[in-house]
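It is worth pausing here to work through a concrete case rather than discussing structure prediction in the abstract. The textbook approach is simple: state the sequence, then state the predicted structure, then interpret. We follow exactly that order.
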Amino acid sequence: MPNNGRRLFGGLNRKHLRAYAPVLVLIALCILITIANPNFIELRNLVRVANSAAVPLTLAMGLTFIILLGSIDLSVEGSLSIAAMVTVLLATNDANGNSYGWLAVLAAIAASTAMGFATGIIQTFLRIPSFMATLGVWFIGLGISVYMLGGSAVRLMDPSIRDLALARFLGLPVGVWVALAAFLFACTIQYYTRLGRHIMAIGGGEDVAELSGINLRRVRIMAFGLAGFFFGVAGVLAAAQLGRSDAVIADGRLFAAVTAVVVGGTALTGGEGGVVNTFIGVLIVTILSNGMILLGISPYVQQTVQGLMIIAAVALSLDRLRLQIVK
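Step two, the predicted structure:
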């Protein structure tokens, strides 16, 4: 076969391998853990896995749209903290006399969404790299949250909001169904709306997208606002699951969300992958964590495995034939 033909088919094989690798890893992971500990496939444990995946899935949906742009959003933990804080302080709690019920949930999602829009405006109009703009918003959100909570944990005592974690529908916690609804909403945005197509176009090539008539500023602001919406929903779910809000409610959430997006096969360079990939990535990360707990592996070793996993995922997702410079 001529060299050009071998190069063509070799490129196709590599592309297909990268596309199907996350699914193959997920299947292999489930088989290996089941062999090592059959308790993994018990219904009770599978429900536990689904419940553990609810918050990371919702967070990762929002983060996926930003990474598809070729940007990054480090404000995940700040936005989640704000949403959890607003939910707890406006609903029935043990710190004040407020009792606004589900209006507290709407206010929490609105606050996080507003933070997302503010981030997008700061990043686009001040022309600050997304890394630094979102890093600043992360600490602003966290600082406001800790200040409003008075530096202590405030208990969420509204039974209807707590039911997101405690009540079940068809055997699964209601929060899991909320996370699945967030996933379906994200799929609709990416695959069936102009915003989703424009986000993919900008990630694939910003100069070409601009020449095609796409308003880069507007799309970026909308994408960050959309991410803030998902972060807000995740904040409400986190508060419902834990039954409180405090300074550490968001600790580690950023790493989990980024890991899920990257492990799922969405390229950090943008324009490749999507929310379905992220869904698979969340399952991989959650099942791996659950499996290591079942096998009695040390938490420190678990962190090491997760670090190795994200390095391997990034290495597999990069197309080195097109990547000329690595910074």
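Step three, interpretation. The chain has a mean pLDDT of 84. The first strand starts at residue 154 and ends at 155.
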